[in-house]
Amino acid sequence: MMRDNGTGQHIAIYAGSFDPITLGHLDVLRRARRLFDGLILGIGHNPDKPAMFDFDERVEIASSLVEDMLEAEPAPEGGAPVRVERYSGLTVDFARENHACALIRGIRNITDLATECQIAIANRQVADIETVFIVTGETYAFTSSSLIRQIAGLGGDLDRLANIIPPIVIERLREKDWRISNPE
Prior knowledge:
Blueprint: E1 11-16, H1 23-32, E2 38-43, H2 55-72, E3 82-86, H3 91-97, E4 102-107, H4 110-127, E5 130-135, H5 145-153, H6 167-176
Parallel strand pairs: 1-2, 1-4, 2-3, 4-5
């Protein structure tokens, strides 16, 4: 049985850089709402990935999308409430600070599973926190923020991404005109 946060509620953290947030992320969040009493979408920094959007932009975009989700699917029928927070440092420390009983991770494929299992075991050993895997919907199985950054950075057609990223992200990508500089 999962521990609660002292209030009798089971809170989970869905953490990531969400740079940019995708429809696959929102799909996992939507389904996780039915498993816990509350969720925190934790927006962190991944030092291994170049940032497309700064923290404030990512929090603003995610907050807008979560607000839309909660309006369209209000609690309790639509699932648990969700709040968006930014954090720095280790995800397990952020989870402890928020009295979370679990971390949510989306799994797209076997490669994700192998990597995420290793991290989940470490998190359980180091921080005594469980990880709950949610398999991404088949529509989003090949979606990743890294892929979106690459397409946008190389000048790809943003309209072709409408089935994997929210309209607000497409709009912000157009405003930003984020491109990978050509080394030549």
